[in-house]
Amino acid sequence: MRAAPAVRGGHRFLPEEPRVDIAVIGTGYVGLVTGAGLADFGNDVICVDIDVNKIEALRKGVIPIYEPGLDKIVSKNVAEGRLRFTTDLPDAIRSARAIFIAVGTPPRPDGSADLRFVEEVARQIAKHMNGPKLVITKSTVPIGTGRLIDEILHATGNGHKAAVVSNPEFLREGSAIEDFMKPDRVVIGASDPQSAEMMKEIYAPLHSLEIPFVVTNVESAELIKYAANGFLATKITFINEIAVICEEVGANVQDVALGMGLDTRIGPKFLQAGPGFGGSCFPKDTSAMADISRRHGYEFQIMEAVLRVNDDIKQRMVVKIVDALGGEVLGKTVAILGLAFKPETDDMRDSPTIPIIKGLQEKGATIRAYDPQAVANSKAIFDGVTYCEDPYETADGADALVIATEWNAFRALNLTRIKGALRKPVVIDLRNVYEPNRMRSEGFEYYSVGRSADGRKKV
Ligand code: UGA
Q1: Which of 34, 172, 179 to mutate to test the pocket of ligand 1 (most atoms within 8 A of CB)?
Q2: Do the Cβ atoms of 407 and 343 come closer than 8 Å?
Q3: How far apart are the CA of 277 and the centre of ligand 1, in A?
Q4: Is 458's pLDDT higher than 50?
Q5: Chain-wide mean pLDDT for the chain?
């Protein structure tokens, strides 16, 4: 299908003809954002999934995940003829010049990534390719996967040439569209200059925005992804441990983070102390990084420590809540605001709220909870949680209120209503959303993270 040229924001953005015929295999989070984004860059994109219901829904414009702006960019590119959905993998392989692999790489029990789906897609490409293909890994895959795909393509291929590229994604849930359209950098790991050139063509609109392109070999690109996520997870874990020290010595972690972050060598981002990192990426990738390292005979000690500390931090949050309730939660009700691992997503994967809520339940607490998006996904995870319609209903009759995810809606609570709804005016703010002095003057017993002489005492 050929797309008509379009004019956007006063700029002629698209070429007369689509840039590259692309297939994106896997319409999970990464695949769908990538497919829609690449179509918006002027490529002709077909997204493939084996899930018939999902593809049917996507064809009707129903987006299976909550991601701000994704629905608009999907419907626009479908309407303009650059984005299609199919379950017919062989046909998609044949029609494409460039094939992005964006299938899941779930963690195995030992922390390593399960490559079953990636390998199967590589076998399918080998079987159905009908001309030269560029095969690009978008899924986060262990170092060496590019080579493995290359071996599969050449061992089982039907004589056509295939080149493998690693093009890791750096999308954050909740701002994935913005991250795709205006990334800090594009990383291309290729084994020949022609492949790198085709990747640049695919991402051509980013050149005009002067986005840096890092062109390297496949292994380096694969490692960049793990190194970046591992470093960010370390940065968060570092500030979470600083927060522990702050509570002991009477310092304020937000001031410490500000003072550190203004050093341009450190930078201010990812220095917000909280209940530990979660989500589908940092926990999985830090543990895979440690595993990859072990397999190569080296113990990546910082990564191992980050994983251990992150688990400890979550348990510290349970202790913090129990202490705020006088050391005993048996028979008490705790209201939890926010369930998702971060705002603007419905994703519950590895959310810090899972060990926190389960830890409180084990100690005999009753849980009431509210999240603007993640309730449906939470229902499969928790037993015995009462889900409420808004923060005030959640607080109703509870012995304490916990702010677990910093949704914007929780930054502007009507504190008088919250206080009136709670049985006791106890607030444990695990995201440091509120100012301690203000909360005290409003009559709350207020606890937060790393902002008091003793985080377990009120501030
Ligand atoms: C992360 C990376 O930020 C993306 O660059 C990467 O592409 C993505 O993983 C991936 O590998 O696919 P994401 O998991 O969506 O993105 O979320 P983040 O915004 O990075 O947050 C991760 C966790 O760290 C959350 O639990 C968040 O609450 C926590 N966090 C983040 C903090 O506790 N403090 C901070 O200062 C920042």
Answers
A1: 172
A2: yes
A3: 7
A4: no
A5: 93
Q: Is 281 in the pocket of ligand 1 (CB under 6 A)?
A: yes
Is 47 a catalytic site residue?
Answer: no
- From the list 164, 162, 182, the residue with the least C-alpha distance to 172 is 182
Paired tokens of 378: 């939470």
Residue 453: band (very low, low, confident or very high) from pLDDT cuts 50, 70, 90: very low
**Res. 452 pLDDT band, cuts 50 70 90:** confident
